[in-house]
UniProtKB/TrEMBL annotation:
PANTHER family: GALACTOFURANOSYLTRANSFERASE GLFT2, RHAMNOSYLTRANSFERASE WBBL. The keyword Glycosyltransferase applies. Pfam families: Glycos_transf_2. Residues 12-166 form the Glycosyltransferase 2-like domain. This is Glycosyltransferase. The keyword Glycosyltransferase applies. Keywords: Glycosyltransferase, Transferase. Belongs to the glycosyltransferase 2 family. GO terms for molecular function: glycosyltransferase activity.
């Protein structure tokens, strides 16, 4: 196994780990397979204050992967510590339960960002272990290569300098909707997000460590924060009302009323500096609009 210290990487693979040691082991096994024989890739594993043995296991891999151990769970801000340590021109961002399918994926990411100066982010195709596509509203529904509104956080690549310029992941969100915030910042920086279905990342979608209250609280709060920041009145009022309704339905389904109540208070009372998007950029976010519109969701269902 190569020592990471001798690498001069083109691509830095960064993934965040939190109390899912089984998934961490699997991901590192897959990455080590790809890592062999390459001198243009480095792996950075960040532990987000795990208490299940993940931190200790990662230290046993420190001969070939760069390991960062954080004292507590910082949410998505934990990623930023890994990004800051990266040496590659480009960052491939994974979850602890996701991994690239093959070296073709890594090669295509590097080639795209090397040859397309207009592209800031490469959005990967997200698959199951069986190779079946995992559909997400963040990506083109026709599974064809081209410009995308956003990307999925468990599998995308971004120019390191661009990510640094736009402030890395937004630390105030903690979890959920960080992809949309970054996508908006990328578009405002005049870069494109390019979806390449041949850049393939497996997402094993482990439910471990994912709690209902977090989804109710952070998805409701963070989405309303984005709406308040980027959309003008009366559009914002309609979308906020829609999002409150969706959050309430989710709270009813999961019996997480306290989290919903807190989300509403924090979503509406936290000061937000408006940065209203131009009509052109709002048009590029039409899928986000439809995803958070009661009317469009009812039409999609019926």
């Amino acid at each position: 196994m190569k020592n990471f210290e001798v690498n001069t990487p083109k691509l830095s693979i960064v993934f965040l780990n939190y109390n899912r040691i089984r998934e961490t082991r699997y991901t590192l096994a897959q990455l080590s397979r790809l890592f062999e024989g390459r001198d243009d890739v480095e792996v950075i594993a960040v532990d987000n204050g795990s208490t299940d043995g993940t931190r200790e296991f990662l230290q046993t891999q420190a001969d070939w992967a760069r390991v960062l151990s954080l004292p507590s769970n910082l949410g998505i801000a934990g990623y930023n510590e890994g990004f800051k340590q990266a040496k590659g021109d480009y960052l491939l961002v994974l979850d602890d339960d996701s991994h690239p399918v093959d070296n073709i994926t890594l090669d295509r990411i590097i080639q795209c960002l090397d040859t397309r100066p207009d592209v800031g982010v490469v959005a990967c195709r997200i698959e199951s272990l069986k190779g079946e596509p995992i559909y997400s509203w963040h990506l083109p529904q026709n599974d064809a290569p081209g410009t995308s509104m956003a990307f999925v956080g468990c599998g995308f690549a971004i120019r390191r300098t661009l990510f640094e310029e736009i402030g890395w992941y937004p630390t105030d969100l903690f979890i959920y909707q960080n992809e949309i915030e970054v996508a908006i910042r990328v578009m405002r920086s005049q870069y494109k997000i390019y979806y390449d279905p041949n850049c393939r990342v497996v997402h094993r979608e482990s439910p471990s460590g994912r709690t209902n209250w977090r989804r109710v609280y952070y998805e409701t709060r963070n989405t309303i924060w984005l709406i308040r920041r980027y959309f003008p009145f009366p559009m914002a009022a309609y979308l906020i009302g829609s999002r409150l309704f969706f959050g309430l339905i989710h709270a009813l389904q999961s019996l997480e009323f306290r989290g919903y109540y807190r989300a509403v208070l924090d979503a509406l009372h936290t000061p937000i500096e408006p940065q209203v998007l131009s009509p052109l950029l709002r048009q590029q976010l039409i899928t986000f609009w439809r995803q958070n519109s009661v009317w469009h969701q009812l039409l999609a269902r019926f």
